[in-house]
């Protein structure tokens, strides 16, 4: 736990919060770490994290998705896979990291547990465990994505602060906007995080999209002095709830899927990640403007 403890101690309440961002651990590896987070539940974080990880893997990049909801893991469920709670054995050192992975080519998933009494009763610091896993295995991957639980728990904030980038997922719902601001506020005041990416999910019109973007980005800048990069948005589409994930996670080359991939390439180009766009046209379009 030495590396993790050292990093966490750099954010002691006695430290000057203005300098906290300067103390974040610089990686010696090319791995890009992204937190998929949000203040409110039900905004689509897990589906977006899973879709992004799978698309990165399809593009040929070694990608690890970690489900950080320690006892309500949903990533495997969305993939239609059975639950096994292998993560319990990783926590007790009865199994190693590779034993607990779901591997599908370049896409690797580390699910957590579902209703585990052992996890519920443990006094382990889950965020420290995840950070240690990342530190031990980031040299094996091009991207590591964290599907973080909703809200502003200590664990969620710590994991988001540790990552290179944060995707804050928000819907046009007022409570989602308010809760996302609270998340960004705590990241800024507690960890000195001054830059985040915003993705608006389930918006119904261009006007609604722009209103959410303006409301959040201007409030964050005016009151926190933090910068919000507009990652883009996902427009609400008419699909029955029971078939949503099948449509969302499919490899069909429909217009919606092309727009999501374009959004993903736009992000990786702007942050200097290792992803290379599959075509010059898509690369140029994603570079010139935010996709929504």
Task: Give a short synopsis of this structure.
The protein has 12 helices and 8 strands. It is of the alpha/beta class and 292 residues long.
Describe the protein in words.
The structure is a single chain. With 292 residues, the protein is α/β, with parallel strands linked by helices. Helix content is 43%, strand content 16%. The protein has twelve helices and eight strands. The chain has helices at 2-9, 45-58, 75-78, 87-91, 117-121, 126-137, 154-162, 174-191, 206-224, 244-248, 255-271, 280-288; strands at residues 32-37, 63-67, 102-104, 107-110, 143-147, 165-170, 195-203, 227-235. It has an eight-stranded mixed beta sheet with strand order 3-4-2-5-1-6-7-8, sandwiched between helices. Strand 6 (165-170), helix 8 and strand 7 form a beta-alpha-beta unit. Helix 7 crosses helix 8 (174-191). The longest helix is centred in the last third of the chain and has 19 residues, at 206-224. It is globular and about 55 Å long. The model is unreliable at 13-28 and 275-292 (pLDDT under 50).
State the end-to-end distance: 41 Å
* Poorly predicted tracts of residues: 13-28, 275-292
Query: Strand order across the biggest sheet?
Result: 3-4-2-5-1-6-7-8
- The helix fraction, in percent, is 40-55%
Entry keywords:
292 residues; alpha/beta; 8-stranded mixed sheet; disordered C terminus
Layout of SSEs?
Elements: H1 2-9, E1 32-37, H2 45-58, E2 63-67, H3 75-78, H4 87-91, E3 102-104, E4 107-110, H5 117-121, H6 126-137, E5 143-147, H7 154-162, E6 165-170, H8 174-191, E7 195-203, H9 206-224, E8 227-235, H10 244-248, H11 255-271, H12 280-288
Parallel strand pairs: 1-5, 1-6, 2-4, 2-5, 6-7, 7-8
Antiparallel strand pairs: 3-4
Helix pairs in contact: 6-7, 7-8, 8-9, 11-12
